[in-house]
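Working notes for the structural subgroup meeting. M.R. asked for a predicted model of this chain before we commit to crystallization trials. I am recording the input and output together here so anyone reviewing the notebook later can reproduce the run.

Input as submitted:
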Amino acid sequence: MEVATKAMLPAAVEYTDEQIGLMKRTICNGATNDELLLFIQQCQRTRLDPFTKQIYFIKDKNNKVNVMASIDGLRLIADRSGLYAGQTRPEWCGKDGNWADVWLQDEPPAAARVGVYKTGFVEPLYATARYRSYAPPQASQWSTWGKMPELMLAKVAESLALRKAFPNEMSGIYTAEEFSKESPKTEDVVEVAVSEAPKLPKSSTTMTGTSAQKKSDVGGKTDLIGLFEDAIAAGKTEEEIDAYLRQEFGVTQENFHMTPKQLEQAYGGLVGTKK
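Returned structure, recorded in token form:
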């Protein structure tokens, strides 16, 4: 395979003032000027398009900026390197350690592995992801982790393998699936499963702890389904919502645990101004 040269690579994207303004109002909502410039530099370094959701900006609860990419974004970075020579098909294994190229069991696989071929290397660069290390605890049957755990685990393994093969190009850039394991530790929480679940009446939201005495009235919405619907209406994708809630509050779409105050903060971060 021909090695990439500077002339072969796409030119670094130059954004107009209008695009930068749009980026700060939407994709990088709440970012400082320096944080916006940092994100733009990552977009230019990776040559990923933030407007097509190949790369996106997340600011966590500690005000740390995180840049995440979709799995397609990582694949594109690898392909543009000129050194990417394909990859192995994903494989899964159960607790017995026997690998298979198709997962037909009802229970989730114990692990998945993917190998990436890189020009100049004799063997593929393999990465293995264990289910217990990446799957969210008690994943809802309506979530992607609940419905297709083998696919989600394979995406994690592929992300690990791609970054292992191309560390310079992908350093510091992760996919949302790699952080699905994190969950909050709080007693006073609001709980509801949202991702692709049947729509529940506003009154059916389950409250636990001291939150059971009252509901959070955020932007006219009284539950997390309303927050999710408004964020989608505001132009956010499910991937962006999942990454924001995980980084900012340590929760996932599969298993929400949020206090009323966190709900209000999340509404401001995902939707913008309160209604």
